[in-house]
Amino acid sequence: MEKTMRKIVKIDEEKCDGCGACVISCAEGALKIIDGKAKLVSEKYCDGLGNCLDCPQGAITIEEREAEDFDESAVEAHLHGEEVEEKMPCGCPSANIARFVREPATAIKTEARPQAAVASRLGHWPVQLALVPPTAPFLKGADVVLSAHCVPFAYAGFHQDFLDESTALLVACPKLDDFQAHQKKLDEILKQSGIKSLTVVHMEVPCCSGLVHMAKQAILTSGNVVPFRDITISIRGERKTG
Fold first, then answer.
1. Are strands 167-172 and 60-68 parallel, antiparallel or unpaired?
2. What domains appear along the chain, each with residue ranges and CATH number?
């Protein structure tokens, strides 16, 4: 295939820690986390404009070299999933789809609550990051848990382990939601709300680590250096870190 001299991304794998921030920033879907490192999926998907240059580790630069021409129609097809084994809408590899055989749970019923096994520990509403104002009273002095959408479905002990009377819950998805709008909202929450700590709970899939990048950036931007925790949940619903 004919190549021309043009600007295109260059990835330093020694510096790359697989955080996924570049994947989120690239509107063309040219980048993907493979074996824990960012990779260029195809030269024809990269426009060379450098939206991915905000890499926290400085692992991405722009170089000028011979490369396949940028193909806008190919990008369109790529983003609409018209190629085999690309990505699901959330950016996760389709090969990661799995079903698990589990023993049926035993419900704990009482006379007062014959249908309920466990009472909810959620202490406020709304929970979607996009809907929560930075000055919401339940944020003041709270231990904030920023959770990926999928976590409460995958992790059975979510309420028990992460929610109590001092907790405020915020829910977001770095891939399906408007990342820039969410980043701005979280920046404002860190600046205005007076939260006590910030815990990010996310799935082990690469795109989900964008929440960690979002939280760290908000701490830096706001200047509010609160205690921070990063907790990873596996796709089998097991707590891996934190």
1. unpaired
2. 3-87 (3.30.70.20), 129-241 (3.40.50)
In contact, 123 and 138? CB cutoff 8 Å: yes
State if pTM tops 0.85.
Answer: no
How confident is the model over 15-51, as pLDDT tens digits?
998 887 888 778 788 998 888 888 999 999 999 998 8
Q: Whole-angstrom Cα distance, residue 41 to residue 60?
A: 14
Q: At 236, phi and psi to the nearest 5?
A: -90, 5
